[in-house]
Amino acid sequence: MPENPVRSVLEGKPFRHPLHPMLVHFPIGLFVISLVLDVASYLGRGSHALVLGALYTMCAGVAMGIVAAVPGFVDWTDIRRDHPAKGIGQWHMGLNILVLLIYGISIIARFATTNPRRTDLPLIFTSVIAICVLMVSGYLGGLMVYDDGIGVGRHRRRGRAPVRTIPLTAAGSADGWVSVPGAELMEDPQTLRLSIDGVIVALAKADGAYYAFQEFCTHRYGPLSEGCLKGGQVTCPWHGSLFDLHTGKVQHGPAKTNINVYDVRLVNGKVSIRVPSDDSINAVRRSRVAGATQERDWKTAAEPAPRPARVDRTPDTR
Amino acid sequence: MRPTTPPEFARELTAKAKHLTLKDFLQGKPLGHPLHAFLVHLPMALWPTALAFDILAYVRHDNDLSLTLTAWWCILVGLITATAAIPTGIADWTGIRPGRPARKLGLLHAALNSAVFALFIVNFTLRGLRGPYVPSITRTELLLSAIAVALLFPSAYLGGLLVYDHGIGVARTSKHYWRNVAIAGGARVGED
Cα(A25)–Cα(A27) distance, rounded to whole angstroms? Predict the structure, then answer.
């Protein structure tokens, strides 16, 4: 499926930079200066010019806020459904709508004011409250970028990113191969995000081949399923670490550690993956951080089967 | 152990504050969000707004004080917040490893911003000499605003590229969270 050009522009792909963060400077700055002008009119000797300036900048802020909302909403639809930023984005959107509503009411109320040289105190307080809400909302928006990397490196991505994590289990399979339903219908390039008994795997189809590898970059754990797939390699969207998908080796940094790659096979048109179950180091690590993950929603949806007990290993062999 | 009572919260905060360096603070680590990106909203929005009001004031020629006064305040608040943003930007830049392409881009961003900052200082001084309550602007002031904003846009774009193309500041404070998620997800991870 060729990418929708309108969507591509709204996501800022031709600019290598999302549009929403470019536009949000304006409502933020305009609402703040509007409050400054209000306060200046109230505290100073009073001036109709300041009262008018506050109204102008406020109207411009609302207009720019509405403009910024469009690419913002498109950015939100691009976030994976089980990603923690999806919920943050909802709060961000709700609070921003609230701010625009407050300012809309404030603008209407300004036409009914009596003193042309000073902004009324209730209107100033309304702006203070709106800016407090805006600060919280802006902070949430910033968290989505700086904590969760939403929009970071997205312009490098080719093809569709995963819309959700697909829970799978190896419990029913005798030989460890897990069939991935629907994988044979994947576009080229496209990536799925799988959870195979809790192991998060990115399954990618690119240049006619299937690759399975760990979802997390080894540098700052960026989502490789949203990376750029090219020539049997994947680039992490966040800081550009490049990994070979046949061996998992780092081609260039900042990452220093190789990623896990998993076996994929295509038999009778069905794609299946094998994730080694005797990965003891990771099993120990996993138990150490049990409960410290966001991946609970879909885990409860499909509880992973208990791993078979290993009897062929004595505990003290290293 | 997570703190549950107010004294525990206070103790944890003071313990954290003791280890906090100036660079950490300027990078916005206690906030969990780069401080530079937070502060630059204001000059980035206010200086183009000042230019818009300048153009209106210049074109309309009707001595509307509300236009020139708004531009005057926009430039002033922009200058104050830009001054605050400078040290935070330097702190972020020093966090980029030498040899990475983002480092050069950061230098260019800083150079352009310095030019913009200087132009608005001159601009504001000229206006200040005439007093803020003058309902007209000169051609020099309009030109200074226009040139500065014409430099500000590419500079801000470079700053955006540092984040969205080079990932500067991304996962700086959340890397421990994502590390735990990665380990729980069976990923191989490097040394912390």
Answer: 6
Chain A residues touching residue B77 (CB < 8 angstroms): 32-33, 36
Please give, rounded to a whole number of angstroms, the shortest distance from the CA of B56 to a CA of chain A.
12
CB distance B183 to A285 below 8 Å = yes
Work out the burial of residue A182: count CB atoms within 10 Å of its CB; fewer than 13 is exposed, 13-18 middle, 19 or more buried: exposed
Q: Which residues pair with A191 in a beta bridge?
A: A204
Domain that holds residue B105: 35-183
**Rounded Cα gap, residues A73 and A106, in angstroms:** 25
Flag if A29 and B42 touch (Cβ within 8 Å): yes
Query: How does pLDDT run across A16-48, given as a tens digit for each residue?
Result: 999 999 999 999 999 999 999 999 989 988 888
Residues with Cβ within 8 Å of residue A45, at least 6 apart in sequence: none
Query: What pTM, to 2 d.p., does this model score?
Result: 0.85
Q: Which pLDDT does position B138 carry in this prediction?
A: 87
> Which residue ranges form the domains of chain A, and what is each CATH number?
5-154 (no CATH), 159-301 (2.102.10.10)
Instruction: Assess if residue B10 is contained within a domain.
Output: no
